[in-house]
Design brief:
Elements lengths: L5 H4 L10 H4 L12 H9 L21 H9 L3 H11 L3 H7 L3 H4 L12 H14 L15 E5 L3 H12 L3 E6 L19 H13 L3 E4 L9 H7 L2 E4 L5 E2 L12 E3 H12 L16 E5 L3 H13 L3 E5 L26 H5 L5 E2 L2 E9 L2 E12 L11 E3 L5 E4 L2 E4 L3 E3 L5 H5 L22 E3 L2 H4 L4 H20 L12
Parallel strand pairs: 1-2, 1-4, 2-3, 4-16, 6-14, 7-8, 7-14, 8-9
Antiparallel strand pairs: 5-15, 10-11, 11-12, 11-13
Helix pairs in contact: 3-4, 4-5, 5-8, 6-8, 9-17, 12-13
The protein binds flavin-adenine dinucleotide (FAD) and iron/sulfur cluster.
Flavin-adenine dinucleotide binds next to α9, β2, α13, α16 and α17.
């Protein structure tokens, strides 16, 4: 441990964001970087606790060795910090930008102070590595002769491919979209994660020998069985792409869209693509309603504001969270508190309305004009199901003029039609793909990882899943493996 009193000497600092006026003019990343000196000070705040909850328990799903690299950053040993970080995380440049940082929720300093700036130190280690040339293509010395197909190029597929390639297997990644990266490329907006950062990593992986085949929809363009015949193992990393719908009157009106019909279009425009008029969805001068208060909802907000929406509203069914942890949500659990994303700060006033249920949409000539909603509260939990009934508050109905609605209420499970049905892959009770402790599905030689296995989740979990599946595949093909477990998945 470098600085014994660092946590008393220095306050928590995070990189400043560009001014709101400035950043609403483009889709570039919101946050700047701290100076090297500042990162050292932030690293010095780490108390090197006896039990680092940040890297175990409810902390980092990857088991990142946080106190050790915090100390190395404090001492200016950036290259060593990077080497240590890469042992557990293939893509710290992604998680350092967009991870909600459960590690910080579990940081011991966070019990009575603001936690260590772990996430941004992680980003700084990664960026320092690229800048100084510490991260360079690392082709395996020998090839095993084993061939693996990965379906889906999101963080799970990428992490799995990286791990398997590094131990000498030949990996081909199939992707149905025209660009590689999954939700990192098409979903998460550029203002949170610059797509150059994604492309930089893909280029590195190509230089290391991974083959990417975008524009091929497995189960549609090519049967999954063909891959099973051509490769020694197949890993399904297709994400959780079935969005949750809202079955209310007026759902079919022109103007009601899934969030994922909207967000990828802006990602594509940012890449220079032209979206044809018949499918283009643009919020400019429109009254926009976002239904759903999570990450996807806040991404729709930031994108709508950048496109010049007239008004943006956001409904959330659940009540407004408290500003501080409730006694039922103690440290080191993930704090269920009111959060304000960079997109929420960009709105001139609070756009979120909590405890609201959407009753119906109405319009004329097939076009959306209004949303009709009601305030709700939650009753006492049912003794059998444990579920709290949603009760409408009498005389609280209201309506709003809206031109566009984005349904951002999460994803129910992977798409079953296509490759999963083709192979009759076993599903779990929630409709996700079932797997054993080695991440193998009920079909011999076919593995699964990421949101396709665990349901809608986070990038950090997708990376952990991809690493664990790589371990399962390596063991399956070679009878033994030196690839590490992901700590929470073993
Ligand atoms: C809008 C949005 C914002 C988010 N923001 C954050 C955030 O800030 N931080 C965070 O940690 N998490 C965030 N998440 C969640 C996170 O992106 C996902 O948990 C993560 O990307 C899952 O990774 P994955 O590799 O399992 O799947 P995905 O990233 O979904 O990738 C799956 C890929 O498989 C491809 N595919 C599917 N089926 C086939 C097929 N049959 N043939 C070929 N290709 C196929 C898809 O096209 C896709 O590219 C966000 C999610 C959304 C939707
Ligand atoms: S990956 Fe996420 S949880 Fe793990 S150290 Fe980084 S920010 Fe924290």
């Amino acid at each position: 441990m470098g600085s014994v009193k660092g946590f008393m000497q220095y306050e928590r600092e995070v990189p400043v964001s560009r001014s709101i006026d400035d950043r609403l003019k483009d889709h570039l990343e919101v946050y700047d970087h701290l100076s090297e000196e500042k990162y050292k000070q932030q690293g010095a705040r780490c108390m090197d606790c006896g039990v680092p909850f940040c890297q175990s328990g409810t902390g980092c799903p990857l088991g990142n060795m946080i106190p050790d690299w915090n100390d190395m950053v404090y001492q200016g040993r950036w290259e060593e910090a990077l080497a240590l970080l890469l042992k557990t995380n293939n893509f710290p440049e992604f998680t350092g930008r967009i991870c909600p940082a459960p590690c910080e929720g579990a940081c011991v300093l966070g019990i009575n102070e603001l936690p260590v700036t772990i996430c941004k130190i992680e980003e700084a280690i990664a960026e320092n590595g690229f800048e100084k040339g510490f991260i360079k293509p690392n082709r395996p010395q020998n090839r095993t002769g084993k061939k693996i197909a990965i379906v889906g190029s999101g963080p799970a597929g990428l992490a799995c491919a990286d791990q398997l390639n590094q131990v000498g297997h030949s990996v081909t990644v199939y992707e149905k979209s025209d660009r590689v990266g999954g939700l990192l490329m098409y979903g998460i907006p550029g203002f949170k994660l610059d797509k150059q950062v994604v492309k930089r990593r893909i280029k590195l992986m190509i230089d290391e020998g991974v083959i990417f085949l975008p524009g091929i929809h497995v189960g549609v363009d090519i049967p999954l069985k063909k891959l099973m015949g051509d490769f020694d193992a197949v890993v399904l990393c297709g994400g959780s792409e079935k969005p949750r719908d809202l079955s209310v009157e007026g759902r079919d009106l022109d103007g009601v869209h899934y969030a994922m019909d909207f967000l990828p279009q802006q990602n594509k425009r940012n890449e220079g693509d032209v979206i044809s008029n018949d499918i283009s969805i643009v919020a400019k001068d429109k009254n926009v309603l976002i239904i759903g208060g999570g990450d996807t909802g806040s991404d729709c907000l930031g994108t709508s504001l950048r496109q010049g929406a007239k008004n943006v509203y956001q409904f959330e069914l659940l009540p407004q969270p408290t500003d501080k942890r409730k006694p039922t949500n103690p440290w080191p659990e993930w704090p269920m508190i009111m959060r304000v994303s960079s997109s929420h700060k960009e709105a001139k006033s609070e756009v979120r309305q909590f405890s609201v249920s959407t009753k119906k949409f109405s319009g004329s000539d097939g076009k959306l004009k209004k949303v009709h909603a009601v305030k709700v509260k939650f009753g006492d939990p049912d003794s059998k199901t444990g579920r709290s009934p949603v009760i409408e508050v009498p005389d609280s109905e209201f309506d709003l003029d809206v031109d566009l609605v984005f349904l951002a209420m999460g994803f129910v499970h992977p798409v079953h039609e296509g490759m999963l049905l083709e192979l009759d892959v076993k599903l779990d009770g929630r409709g996700n793909v079932w797997c054993d402790e080695n991440k193998m599905t009920n079909v011999d030689g076919v593995f699964v990882a990421g949101d396709m296995a665990r349901g809608q989740s986070l990038v950090v979990w997708a990376i952990a899943e991809g690493r664990e599946a790589a371990r399962g595949v390596d063991k399956y093909l070679m009878s033994t493996t030196n690839l590490p477990h992901s700590q929470f998945l073993k």
